[in-house]
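Note to self: keep these together.
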Amino acid sequence: MVDGVGSSLPSPANGEGLLASKISLGEAVAAVAQRGGNPSASPELSALYSNKQRIEAALQELKYKRSSLSDAEYNKSLEGLLVQLAQTNQKIKTLERK
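Structure:
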């Protein structure tokens, strides 16, 4: 919830912290480390890492929306995102083996 008031206990249960969880100050350190510390890896690999971050952000956002969704809607969305994440991770692993 964006109300201009901070929270010492951000969580999906109270809706606090979603905006802060979306803020990025640059490429994730883990993504650079996974590419062997080379931030200028192939454009295809960079695009896959960006897509992975987008999917992970969507998963975080889904957690915050869970209370407003039916179980069926939540499970369908969760399954779709997890499949996308698994496929993206597989493509990353394949490219990194080359």
